[in-house]
Amino acid sequence: MQQEDLIICNDLDEIPETDFDVVPPNEYPMQAVDVTLKTTNDGTGKYINVQFEIVDGEQAGRKIFQMFNIKNKSAKAVQIGVGELKSWIKACGYEPSGQLLFSSVTALEGQVFVGKVGIQKQEGYDDKNTIKAFKSANGYVAPSEPQQSQGLQKTPQQAQTSQPDKVPAFLKKQAQ
Q: CA angle, corner 141, sides to 138 and 147, nearest 5?
């Protein structure tokens, strides 16, 4: 039986080649587009895997993946992971305090912040991008307006005319 040939593209001349090189180190406006809770390979820990997307500029559309340790044999790994989560929350305009829930982290999807992107060297593997710092976007709005996350309350600058949402217990409105 002969298989029918499928047309994949009508004109390859119009399609740019794909480049999987790392994003050059710099600061980029970005947002989380996928937040997933995962179990470590040895089954003893948990981490939050986040897919971030650069939302503007020459690197727009490029993805950066970041893991945040939340349960690990190493207390230092957990301290670093949760500290990075706290920095991301603050960069999105919220003041974290008290208990941090996974649902509150997933509510950050679509919230624009500025990520300071660097390159991590890995022996035996290709270099990869990492977010070295999370910074406020200072009112930056992505070209395609991200959806407002449910359950988070904005800072006064972000709230403007919107109605306040219910705030998870770990978040407090930032002082003016």
A: 120
Cβ atoms of 81 and 69 within 8 Å: the answer is yes
CB atoms within 10 A of CB 50: 23
Mean pLDDT of 158-164: 37
Q: How many CA atoms lie within 13 A of 153 on its CB side?
A: 16
Q: Which residues pair with 118 in a beta bridge?
A: 130
pTM: 0.73
Residue 84 lies inside a defined structural domain of this protein: yes
Examine the pLDDT at 89 and tell me if it is beyond 90: yes
- Measured CA to CA, the distance from residue 8 to residue 1 in angstroms comes to 21
Asked if residue 98 belongs to a domain, the reply is: yes
In a domain, 129, yes or no: yes
**How far are the Cα atoms of 7, 9, 54, 67 from residue 4, in angstroms, in the given order?**
10, 15, 39, 43
Q: How confident is the model at residue 142 (pLDDT cuts 50, 70, 90)?
A: low
Q: Are 119 and 25 in contact (CB under 8 A)?
A: yes
Percent of the chain with pLDDT over 70: 77
Structural domains in the chain (count): 1
Structural domain harbouring 54: 22-140+147-172
Inside any domain, residue 116: yes
